[in-house]
């Protein structure tokens, strides 16, 4: 007897990273998994039939760089921002988390801290989720094997500029911001031993070494300190132009050189260079790849840095670290992406509501007083399609950049493709639906977006998570059913 399907998606144009063009076909789902991808599957075998005529079926987006719970409580943020993710075709959200100010606003060992993170997350995400963790203190390095073995956390992070800057600007009180011990220092020496700890874990866990990696936010606090003071003293620049000048691209480049040299020194081969924003940063990254060919560098950019530039009308609403750059840097990122030098694209989603984003009073719109970060996971896939088509980027490459590549890098072999045996995570996209971004339409609690008014040329019509519809026709569907993904998943 032929087994039945739970769901059959009929007449879709199926997009996958293994080929440039979409291929007509049906997708059969059973038990949350894809069980067949072929033309003309028998619809009478399906309990539910979804007609996807005229639509493209993309693998659900794996948004590998999000910050949930940074400005609001984690339990609250998980609900609203994962709704925004599902609204945009995202089915897996990988969130950065650390001890210290913001997030849970506490310090201590990860043995105590991370179970609290998981408890606040459980039952609140509308998409599947995982975490990258940052060893902030020397004692955290010793916990890396425990985090891998007991919680399936296989990716870690260093914020290179935190040694001299806070989240929003210069800070001389690192003990308050980072909440580290009197004997701890968050500096290059600490970074070296984080790398050594991650590499020791790769040696210890040979069965998952390919998925154990370290990501770095590459900016140099010493350079930023000098330039921030200079820009503020001169007073000639405002808004995004001032912030770009205060955190100049060569600050990124220098940090990339330092990170790469330390990776070689510590024999750590899996390094992720996060949210590259400028020509100087990407050139530095490619130079380091030539110098250290044995290091597997992952190079990431954000959709914000691929769409926005310093002339954006969003002004302080688009403040983010590293900064939004001039248009020539934006176009260079696209050149390198089209040439295959960028490996995945993310949102760097960090919901910061209007009342928190801007400083109150006379200097309300000061770029230096505004808080850093903004949301955008809901626009990641459609903006990639919109901008990518203008530049000749194939649909298959978009699927690779937004789904297959981050899934492979971060330990999700069951995600990232419309392939038999994988999770039925699917985003149905109308490729001919034009619309303008309006913050009021998004499920995010942010209340604004620096993408306001941006004209999209494609729209998500339905998102399926493990075969279950979680978003359809403009509405979220059902209760939060996302689950924590212990890696490798």
Helix content: 25-40%
Bin the strand percentage: 15-25%
Radius of gyration: 22 Å
Count the DSSP helices. Answer: 15
SSE topology sketch:
Layout: E1 5-14, E2 23-30, E3 33-38, E4 46-51, E5 56-59, E6 61-66, H1 74-87, E7 90-97, H2 110-121, E8 128-133, H3 138-141, H4 144-151, E9 155-159, H5 174-178, H6 188-204, E10 213-217, H7 221-234, H8 239-246, H9 249-265, E11 270-273, H10 279-291, E12 296-302, H11 303-307, H12 327-338, E13 344-346, H13 354-357, H14 380-390, H15 395-410, E14 426-430, E15 435-436, E16 455-456, E17 459-465, E18 468-472, E19 475-476
Parallel strand pairs: 1-4, 1-5, 6-7, 7-8, 9-10, 10-11, 11-12, 12-13
Antiparallel strand pairs: 1-2, 2-3, 5-14, 14-17, 15-16, 17-18, 18-19
Helix pairs in contact: 7-8, 9-10
Structure characteristics:
five-stranded parallel beta sheet, 15 helices, TIM Barrel, 489 residues, 21% strand
Short summary:
The chain is α/β, with parallel strands linked by helices and 489 residues long. It has helices spanning 74-87, 110-121, 138-141, 144-151, 174-178, 188-204, 221-234, 239-246, 249-265, 279-291, 303-307, 327-338, 354-357, 380-390, 395-410; strands spanning 5-14, 23-30, 33-38, 46-51, 56-59, 61-66, 90-97, 128-133, 155-159, 213-217, 270-273, 296-302, 344-346, 426-430, 435-436, 455-456, 459-465, 468-472, 475-476.
What this model shows, in words?
Helix content is 33%, strand content 21%. The chain has 489 residues and is of the alpha/beta class. It has a single domain (60-412, 438-453), classed as TIM Barrel (Alpha-Beta Barrel), CATH 3.20.20.140. The strands form 4 sheets. Strands 1, 2, 3, 4, 5, 14, 17, 18 and 19 form a 9-stranded mixed sheet that branches. A 5-stranded parallel sheet has the order 9-10-11-12-13. Strands 6-7-8 form a 3-stranded parallel sheet. A hairpin with a 2-residue loop joins β17 and β18 (468-472).
């Amino acid at each position: 007897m032929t087994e039945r399907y739970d769901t059959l998606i009929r007449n879709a144009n199926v997009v996958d990273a293994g080929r440039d063009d979409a291929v007509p076909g049906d997708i059969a789902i059973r038990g949350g998994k894809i069980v067949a991808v072929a033309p003309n599957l028998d619809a009478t075998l399906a309990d539910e039939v979804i007609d996807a005529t005229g639509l493209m079926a993309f693998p659900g987006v794996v948004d590998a760089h999000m910050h949930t719970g940074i400005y609001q409580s984690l339990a609250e943020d998980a609900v609203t921002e994962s709704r925004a993710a599902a609204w945009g075709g995202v089915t897996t959200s990988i969130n950065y988390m650390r001890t210290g100010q913001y997030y849970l606003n506490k310090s201590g060992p990860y043995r105590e801290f991370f179970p609290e993170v998981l408890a606040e997350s459980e039952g609140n995400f509308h998409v599947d989720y995982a975490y990258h963790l940052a060893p902030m203190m020397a004692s955290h390095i010793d916990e890396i094997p425990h985090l891998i073995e007991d919680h399936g956390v296989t990716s870690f992070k260093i914020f290179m500029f935190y040694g001299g800057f806070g989240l929003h600007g210069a800070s001389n009180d690192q003990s308050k911001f980072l909440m580290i011990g009197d004997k701890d220092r968050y500096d290059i020496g600490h970074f070296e031993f984080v790398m050594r700890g991650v590499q020791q874990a790769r040696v210890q866990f040979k069965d998952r070494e390919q998925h154990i990696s370290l990501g770095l936010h590459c900016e140099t606090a010493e350079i930023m300190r000098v330039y921030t003071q200079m820009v503020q003293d001169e007073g000639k620049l405002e808004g995004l132009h001032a912030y770009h000048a205060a955190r100049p691209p060569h600050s990124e480049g220098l940090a990339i050189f330092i990170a790469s040299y330390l990776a070689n020194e510590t024999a750590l081969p899996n390094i992720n260079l996060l949210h590259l924003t400028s020509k100087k940063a990407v050139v530095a990254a490619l130079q380091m790849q030539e110098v250290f060919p044995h290091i597997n560098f992952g190079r990431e950019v954000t959709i914000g840095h691929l769409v926005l530039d310093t002339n954006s009308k969003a002004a302080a609403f688009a403040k983010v670290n590293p900064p939004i750059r001039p248009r020539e840097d934006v176009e260079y990122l696209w050149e390198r992406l089209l040439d295959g030098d960028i490996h995945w694209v993310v949102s760097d989603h960090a919901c910061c509501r209007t009342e928190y984003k801007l400083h109150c009073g006379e200097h309300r719109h000061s770029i230096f007083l505004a808080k850093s970060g903004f949301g955008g996971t809901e626009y990641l896939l459609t903006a990639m399609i919109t901008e990518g088509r203008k530049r000749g980027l194939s649909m298959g490459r978009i699927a690779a950049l937004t789904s297959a590549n981050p899934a492979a890098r971060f330990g999700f072999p069951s995600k990232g493709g419309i392939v038999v045996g994988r999770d039925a995570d699917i985003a149905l996209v109308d490729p001919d639906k034009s619309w303008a971004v309006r913050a009021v339409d998004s499920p995010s609690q942010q209340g604004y977006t620096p993408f306001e008014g941006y004209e999209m040329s494609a729209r998500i019509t339905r998102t399926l998570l493990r075969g279950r519809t979680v978003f359809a026709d403009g509405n979220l569907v059902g209760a939060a059913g996302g689950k924590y993904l212990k890696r490798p998943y």
